[in-house]
Structures are given as C-alpha cells and as structure tokens.
Amino acid sequence: MNRLTGRQLLEAIEVLRDNKDKYNEFEYWQIYFIFRKEFYNSAAWILLSKEVREETPFCERCFRDNRILHAHHIKRLYTHTYLGLEKSNLEVLCILCHRKEHRKVA
C-alpha cells in the first residue's frame, strides 16, 4: 500500500472534518488523530519543518537559540488544514514556548 503525501493527508483531514456528522465522536477523533500522526510523519512536513528551523535557528517567542526547536502552526492545523504546508503559517518555537502555546489553546 502506498503512503499518502502530506498534501493528500491534509485533504483527507478536511473531508473528514466536513463529514463529521457521519461518525460518532470517538470514531471521528480516532480517525483524525491517525491522519494527523501520518501528516507529521510525512516527508513534506519533515522537510518543511527542517527548512523553517534552519532559516530561523532561534525561538521566535523567547529568542533563545540553545534549545530544541519546533515548527509550530500559527493557525491550528485542525481548523486551517489548507495552511498545513504553508511556510507563512509556521513559526519556530523552543520546546518550552511550544508547550505553553498548546496549553493556552487546549
């Protein structure tokens, strides 16, 4: 079986979200998290994430450069799927700032 590309996975997430009423809540989130995991393991995401972190080798919030860096979606992947592979929707955050950001959203 061939793996889906990053773009195909984003399209699958959009289709799933548009048809949310066809699933019970457990099934929906189970499928969503499978697609999301596959997206973050796709070559397209890995390459884009690496490129963004190399271009900005410091955290864009605290400006530290001696930490593990993550590429973070400014507009959430769940609600703005079409921006999932857009460099303009990414910012570089250190692991601490990234955790703070996701605690704020949750």
Structural overview:
The protein has helices at 6-18, 25-40, 43-55, 95-105; strands at residues 69-73, 90-94. The chain is mainly α. Strands 1-2 form a two-stranded antiparallel sheet. α1 (6-18) packs antiparallel against α2. The longest helix has 16 residues, at 25-40. The termini are far apart.
Strand content: 5-15%
Specify the number of helices.
4
Shape: globular
Helix and strand succession? HHHEEH
For the structure shown, list the relevant keywords:
106 residues; mainly alpha; two-stranded antiparallel sheet; 4 helices; 2 strands; 50% helix; globular
Topology summary:
Blueprint: H1 6-18, H2 25-40, H3 43-55, E1 69-73, E2 90-94, H4 95-105
Antiparallel strand pairs: 1-2
Helix pairs in contact: 1-2
Summed up:
The protein has one domain (6-105). The chain is built from 4 helices and 2 strands. It has helices spanning 6-18, 25-40, 43-55, 95-105, and strands spanning 69-73, 90-94.
